[in-house]
Amino acid sequence: FPVTIVSWESKSLKESKKEDNCIYLIDNRITQEECNTIKQLVELNKNTKFVFTLVDPYYEWQKDNFYMKAVFTLKDHKNVFFLSKYGARELVADLNEASLRKKMIVLPYPFRSGVNMPFDFNKRSNKILLSGNMHKKVYPLRNALRQQIRWNPFIWNKVTYLKHPGYPDIGEPKQHSIIGRAFIQYCSQYTFLFCCPSRCDLEFLKFSECAYAGCVPVGRAPSTFERDLKECVIEVNQDTIFKSVNNLFKIPIDAYRDWE
Question: pTM for the full model?
Answer without folding.
Answer: 0.89
